[in-house]
User: Fold these one by one.
Assistant:
Number 1:
Amino acid sequence: MGDGTRRAVFERLAQGPRAVGDIADGLPVSRPAVSQHLRVLRDAGLVVVTKDGTRRLYEVDPGGLGALRRYLDGFWTESLAAFKAAAEATAPPATPNPTIPTEPPS
Amino acid sequence: MGDGTRRAVFERLAQGPRAVGDIADGLPVSRPAVSQHLRVLRDAGLVVVTKDGTRRLYEVDPGGLGALRRYLDGFWTESLAAFKAAAEATAPPATPNPTIPTEPPS
DNA sequence: GGCATGGGTAAGCGTAGCCTTACGTAAGTG
DNA sequence: CACTTACGTAAGGCTACGCTTACCCATGCC
């Protein structure tokens, strides 16, 4: 998901179900490129397809979204816990929480 | 940060300040490779260096960590808000929150 | 001063990944 | 049945990037 085009495709999809051509219009890449990105997103379980005549409607899969969320949170809290533990180990806990600003909303 | 080795380097650093050689030991890559990863992390503001004799001690920069957190949260909530809005627009809000499981801890 | 230790940097290689063009295919339309 | 529309897929090119080897610099130690 580190690619800009891929994020753009995904954000378009976050606004609602769309066909491949609709996504390709407005993006500076060709339609097959979008198709390939959609394949990756589908293999990752982030997106599902439904056939509608000759078109394929892609939309975000909430389940995959949640899985991604869990994965990221896992990595994050893991690193963070280790870091916090190390920080508290060296410096005596004057500030128990070492400058981690924004708490996630929602 | 999508690279595995880079994450490994970062996680090692999350456990406390370390020298370059210490990180390279236990990782399946050479020391210069680690050095390059550290350079990237430093340019990203995620890590800071302090000289200690002939060695360089790297450690996580809490400020950069917070910035990364903010960036990720921004992207996340943005996509999520759009997705939720679209979902509520199509389906009448029987369930106002469309299956977004884990809330982030801490 | 001479040597060892710890690291950064340059040059080059190999691969992964994104994109394009070209082509093939299923579903509508007359 | 042609023809069009909306896709997917294959093949190839190009670039980015991670890794290694080789080299150079700084610091500590005798």
Number 2:
Amino acid sequence: MAGKLPDDIVTRLREAGLRATRPRLAVTEALRAMGGHHTADDVHAHLARHGTALPRTSVYNSLVTLADLGVVLRAEVGPGAAVYEVADSWHHHFVCRRCGEVGDVPCVAGAKPCLTPGDDVGQVDEAQVIFRGTCRRCLAAGDPADPAAPKDPADPNAA
Amino acid sequence: MAGKLPDDIVTRLREAGLRATRPRLAVTEALRAMGGHHTADDVHAHLARHGTALPRTSVYNSLVTLADLGVVLRAEVGPGAAVYEVADSWHHHFVCRRCGEVGDVPCVAGAKPCLTPGDDVGQVDEAQVIFRGTCRRCLAAGDPADPAAPKDPADPNAA
DNA sequence: TGATAAATTTGTACATTGTCCATGTACAAA
DNA sequence: TTTGTACATGGACAATGTACAAATTTATCA
């Protein structure tokens, strides 16, 4: 966790010729405060709860901008919503089929693209790996024959 | 292309304790006839065009069942719809950021899981890689500064 | 072949996720 | 201050997928 101060973000936005607007800073701050992986709606809800309510569209817009800039990472982890996180380094994800939890998996290369296809398909700039299986907690909880247990661990937000 | 005859599918369904119902066979046949990668709605539209119309829900249900069985592969390739294809062997996907085209990338291992995470995150049964970049056709077409060109190559269906 | 029980399908309604567009606002340069 | 542009905002909308209950199909067994 290399503490990314808002100032840092302001600088990075400016350097990219973008403006450091309230929604962009608020979204970044929200993701950092929550930690882990969260959907656009999670961010929207968090901001509403913390007095910095933004229109849903603005959350989406900001996330797209920040992802393009590389300040946040976007991961498509299944049928549902994409999840975002503050990006310290390039890495992959593990998704539990049982509880849906998303975990980080370090990337040996640490930079994009970390893998290259055997075939010449064009110009590759990113290789994202999604590992699927059963997380340790679900393995420990047993119940090997119950794939329909959508445990929803209470959202662990600080203040 | 190991020609998978419908009989084959019937057998595989039965062996899994499932029934060989009309929607399941029709969806499999549609995917095989179309070739390549297609969304649930593509399948739905194809079937409607070919006299085997099914309710949208049935297409979704069948795809889930068939994917669980391993008869078809499901790939999450971005913000939009998941794409399905008849599965001959495990492989990965390349998604063009420019035109959205999805291509296959052979997997060196050819079986799941082909990669394993460095960390012990639990029990991994699958590792799906998504390569992103610019496909050869878009590279050739130039226009490096036009990411907003949603070329939609006409759906190449036979019959 | 015909009856039976269970698995599936079907249709509707709905929730979720994401995008489009038109208008208003804030910023930065002249 | 003026002006041009980037951006935010809000509403509507499209796309994608799921839940549910009733009707139907499928496999099994007599």
